[in-house]
Write a structure and sequence with these properties.
two-stranded antiparallel sheet, 5-stranded parallel beta sheet, 229 residues, globular, 36% helix, 8 helices
C-alpha cells in the first residue's frame, strides 16, 4: 500500500484534457466531463455522420447503412483523443471504447451485429506511434459488445498522400483501391470502426470492400466526427 501511495505522489493521475490532478480511478476532472458531454452525437445525422444542418445525404450516397460518432472533433473531446493517439496514453483506451459502445447501443438500438471490423492503420502509422491505436480500441469494443473481432481481415495499401491534409476530392481519390480483404464473411452484418470521420471517403471505401467480401450490411462508428466548413 505504501509503494502505491509513493507512486501516486510521484506520478499523480491527471485529467486527460486539462492536466489537473484527479482521483486515480478517473479519466477527466468534473469540469472537463461536462465539456466533453456537450460534444456528443445527438446533433449528427446518423446516415451521413455530418451535422444535421450540413447533412450530406442529398449530395451523395454511401455504401454503409448509417454512421454514429461519439464526439465532435473539437475542444475537450479532441484533446482527450489526441492524448491517447499522439500522447500514447494507452490507459485511455478503455474510456474511449466504452463511450463508443454506448453510442452504438443508442444509435443502432435493436440492430444485432455479427462482427466488428476496424479500418486498418498503415505500417508507417503503427511504427510512428508505437502501437495500433485503432486496433487496441476495436478489440475492447468487440469484447464489450460480445461480437467477433475480424482482426486483420481488412488490409490497407500505402497512401500516396496524408488524408489529414487532403481536400474532399483528394480524399476520395486517395482511398480508391487502398483497402482489400482476405477471405469471405458470409453475409454478416458488420460494425465498422474508425477513429475519426470527416468526409466518409475512408469508411465508404472500406465498406465497399466488406460488401464485396460478402457482408450483408455495414454500419459505421467513430470516436470523433469532424464538421465540414
Amino acid at each position: 500500500m505504501r509503494s502505491v501511495s509513493i507512486l501516486s505522489c510521484l506520478y499523480p493521475n491527471k485529467c486527460a484534457v486539462c492536466g489537473e490532478i484527479i482521483e486515480e480511478n478517473k479519466v477527466l476532472c468534473d469540469y472537463c466531463s461536462i465539456l466533453i458531454n456537450n460534444l456528443c452525437f445527438k446533433n449528427l445525422c446518423f446516415k451521413c455522420g455530418s451535422d444535421k444542418e450540413k447533412c450530406l445525404c442529398k449530395y451523395r450516397e454511401f455504401r454503409f447503412k448509417a454512421i454514429a460518432g461519439a464526439f465532435k472533433n473539437e475542444g475537450a473531446a479532441k484533446t482527450l483523443y489526441y492524448s491517447y493517439k499522439i500522447g500514447k496514453r494507452r490507459e485511455l483506451a478503455d474510456f474511449l471504447a466504452n463511450r463508443v459502445t454506448y453510442v452504438v447501443k443508442k444509435a443502432f438500438s435493436g440492430i444485432e451485429f455479427d462482427a466488428l471490423c476496424a479500418v486498418p492503420t498503415t505500417v508507417t502509422s503503427r511504427f510512428k506511434r508505437g502501437f495500433d491505436h485503432t486496433g487496441v480500441i476495436a478489440a475492447k469494443i468487440s469484447e464489450i459488445l460480445n461480437i467477433e473481432y475480424l482482426e486483420s481481415f481488412l488490409k490497407v495499401r500505402p497512401f500516396k498522400r496524408s488524408q489529414h491534409n487532403s481536400s474532399f476530392r483528394q480524399r476520395l481519390e486517395n482511398v480508391r483501391g487502398k483497402y482489400y480483404t482476405v477471405g469471405r464473411i458470409n453475409k454478416k452484418r458488420i460494425l465498422l470502426f474508425d477513429d475519426i470521420y470527416t468526409t466518409g471517403a475512408t469508411l465508404d471505401e472500406a465498406a465497399k470492400e466488406l460488401m464485396f467480401a460478402g457482408a450483408r450490411e455495414v454500419y459505421c462508428v467513430s470516436i470523433l466526427t469532424t464538421s465540414l466548413k
